[in-house]
Amino acid sequence: MPVNIKTKLGVNAYKIDPESHIAINHDVCKTKCTVKFCTFVCPARVYTLGDDGLIHVEHDGCLECGTCVIACRSDALTWKYPKAGQGVQYRFG
Ligand code: SF4
């Protein structure tokens, strides 16, 4: 029986680093980006546009795929891997 992506993502485990590995330069984001690609491309929906007009980041669900770094054309995003031993742990099975 086929398994959908939501179910597959549900088997991952996360060791959450309280310090975010993702940072947004809000000045650049607000002035240079009108599309907010990160809110569309992230498979984990880490980015949301708040009522305050700022991008909000929930780094603890990050899948470490790197898509957002490529999609952010205004270079408003700083992304690094979480500290060693932290972040997503993929489970296959
Ligand atoms: Fe989302 Fe992938 Fe960027 Fe993590 S690395 S925030 S999962 S797009």
Description:
Strand 3 and strand 4 form a beta hairpin. This protein has helices at 5-10, 26-32, 38-41, 67-71; strands spanning 13-15, 22-24, 47-49, 55-57, 77-79, 87-89. It is α+β, with helices and mostly antiparallel strands and 93 residues long. The protein has one domain: 2-Layer Sandwich (Alpha-Beta Plaits). It binds iron/sulfur cluster.
Write a concise keyword list for the protein shown above.
Alpha-Beta Plaits, 4 helices, binds iron/sulfur cluster, globular, 93 residues, two-stranded antiparallel sheet, two-stranded antiparallel ribbon, alpha+beta
Secondary structure layout:
Blueprint: H1 5-10, E1 13-15, E2 22-24, H2 26-32, H3 38-41, E3 47-49, E4 55-57, H4 67-71, E5 77-79, E6 87-89
Antiparallel strand pairs: 1-6, 2-5, 3-4
This protein binds iron/sulfur cluster.
Structure summarized in a few sentences:
By secondary structure, the chain is of the alpha+beta class. It has helices spanning 5-10, 26-32, 38-41, 67-71; strands spanning 13-15, 22-24, 47-49, 55-57, 77-79, 87-89.
State the distance separating the first and last CA atoms.
Answer: 14 Å
Low-pLDDT segments: none
Number of helical elements: 4
CATH topology: Alpha-Beta Plaits
Percentage of residues in strands: 15-25%
User: What would CATH call the architecture?
Assistant: 2-Layer Sandwich
Percent helix range: 10-25%
